Amino acid sequence: MAGNTKNYKKPVQNDQSLDYGKLPPQATDLEDAVLGAIMLEKDAIIAVMDIIKPESFYKDAHQKIFSAVLDLSQKLQPIDILTVTEELRRRDQLDEVGGPFYITQLTSRVASAAHIEYHARIIAQKYIQRELIRVSSEIQTKAYDDSVDVNDLIDFSESELFRVAEGNIKKETTKINVLIKEAISQIEEAGKREDGLSGVPSGYTNLDRVTSGWQRSDLVIIAARPSMGKTAFVLSMTKNIAVDHNRGVAMFSLEMSSVQLVNRLIVSETGLPSEKIRNGKLEPFEWEQLEYRIKKLVDAPIYIDDTPAISVFELRAKCRRLMSQHDIDIIIIDYLQLMSGTNDNKGNREQEVSMISRSLKGIAKELNVPIIALSQLNRSVELRSGTKRPQLSDLRESGAIEQDADMVLFIHRPEKYGIIEDEDGNSTRGMAEIILAKHRNGALADIKLRFREELARFEDLDNEFVTSFQEENGKNGGALTFGSKMNKENSSKDKDIFDLGHNVNFENEAPF
Fold first, then answer.
1. In a domain, 481, yes or no
2. Run of H or E including 58
3. How far is CA 285 from the centre of its chain?
4. Would residue 3 count as lying in a domain?
5. How far is residue 100's CA from residue 86's CA, in Å, rounded to a whole number?
6. Residue 303's pLDDT band (cuts 50, 70, 90)
7. Pairwise CA distance, residues 454 & 379, whole Å
8. Which structural domain range is residue 362 located in?
9. Among residues 244, 232, 301, 224, which one has the least CA distance to residue 268?
10. Could you confirm whether 55 is annotated as catalytic?
11. Beta bridge partners of 331
12. Angle subtended by helix axes 116-143 and 28-40, to nearest 10
């Protein structure tokens, strides 16, 4: 019999020894037990497939065996000694794992699958420990390298650690009675607020009326063609949120520098011409106007990051760090298509954008804050006849953006296309429509705002419209159309000349 036995290779394990003189954390006996139990009981794989993955195993042979088991499970084929052996033979890996004898040996080391889930969790923990050791070793190597920028090293460290966490820490299910208590608590909290909003207010009356504010864990996409005012809209909203409502805003600008953004905020808040802000040619009264008007901006909880081509892993790391240091209520990204996906450069751009939008939704859920991401629309809008109103199909580079988003809003300014009157004969000059085209948890709506192009500022309208509920032959999916009221704060404060002495002290109240 011995003469007929084929000389199979002895199973090998990963050479993961480190310079510390120790073997990495492992539980090879439990790996044997889990694999054996899977081949003994047909439903055992169901209990562990969301806990461990092939790389969770320390032994290379065990990784290959579990990978074969997963393939059989996905094909809805039975899992036992014979089918696993045959699958490994088909892959030309049977010799590498130790042959049929080793597969049979695994099943002899366990009596049942009674404790398989507990064993799998220990294997997963050992894998996370090994990954943390690997990452810390890389961090240590880079830390000794004087050519590596320390800020880049911090971002790398956080990104790698969160990558380990994202791939291995699974969220447990929660019984509904716990969730009901949480839901009731949120309802009670919303009822106590004077504005009746359950989320972060945008500062636009009728938009907030429809959305009840930007909701926690929501991914909100705000899309438009270039030069429609995407950045101006979120900057106006940032001012409303941070200055008027004292809520923390984290803004990631991938297109403009942080100073450029602040200059636009200054123009919007002071009413001074943008060219004067750029060249600094201000009259004495204009300096006084600037100094007084920006007092509120100075103390506003606004945090701006202008890292170009930021990846989703860097974004997550920066957001988590910001939230640990400050009270951040909302995250804004300008804009989605300028983000980068992973570093492996696999797949096309559409797949990369899909991964980015899916990751942004994951970050919103993980951090429990709303994320607003600006997005470009494709050229089909401009080629369309008629009103050129954007549609969900116009979202650029990926249909996954529409799927992942909880809300999709379009900024539409008809006058940009030479349309100076709407269908009712009303002037469109200085008017902007915020089209709520997707609302996972509420009604669709068209909200009209005023756009002051010279200030790059969006405002509520200065005259009240009658709220009308209409269906435009299905064009807007039964959308609600709202007018709006002017912000009281802006109606009386926009003055160009101030009768003040120069060098206004930020701590003193102005005499008007």
1. no
2. none
3. 43
4. no
5. 9
6. very high
7. 26
8. 199-409
9. 232
10. no
11. 250, 371
12. 140
The conformation of residue 76, written as its DSSP 8-state character, comes to: T
Kindly tell me the sign of the dihedral angle through the C-alpha atoms of 125, 127, 130, 134. negative
> What is the percentage of the chain residues whose pLDDT exceeds 90?
24
Name the H helices within 41-170. 44-48, 60-74, 81-90, 94-97, 99-107, 116-143, 150-168
- Tokens 């499970």 label which residue? 73
Q: Would you call the peptide bond into 417 cis, given omega within 30 degrees of 0 as the criterion? A: no
Q: How many helices (H) and strands (E) does the chain have?
A: 20, 11
The two three-digit tokens of residue 509, written as one number: 């109240």
Catalytic choice (255, 366, 415, 453) = 255
pLDDT band for 206, please (50, 70, 90 cuts): confident
Tokens describing residue 299: 């103390």
What's the total number of domains in the chain? 2
Q: Provide the CATH number for the domain around residue 293.
A: 3.40.50.300
CA–CA distance, 487 with 116 (Å, rounded to integer): 62
Q: Note the pLDDT tens digit of each residue in 340-375.
A: 776 555 567 777 888 888 889 988 988 899 999 998
Q: Look up the CATH number of the domain holding residue 17.
A: 1.10.860.10
**What does the block give as tokens for 62?**
């065990």
pLDDT, tens only, 320-340: 888 888 889 999 998 888 887
Mean pLDDT of 160-165: 79
My answer on whether 215 and 66 are in the same domain is: no
Domain contains 494: no
* Mean pLDDT (the chain, rounded): 79
- Contact in structure between 251 and 304 (CB atoms under 8 Å): yes
Kindly report, residue by residue over 3-30, the tens digit of the pLDDT: 444 555 555 555 554 455 678 899 999 9
Out of 360, 381, 409, a domain closes at 409
pLDDT band at 396 (very low <50, low <70, confident <90, very high): low
Residue 469 lies in a domain: no
Whether residue 259 sits in one domain with residue 127: no
- For residue 349, the 8-state DSSP code is H
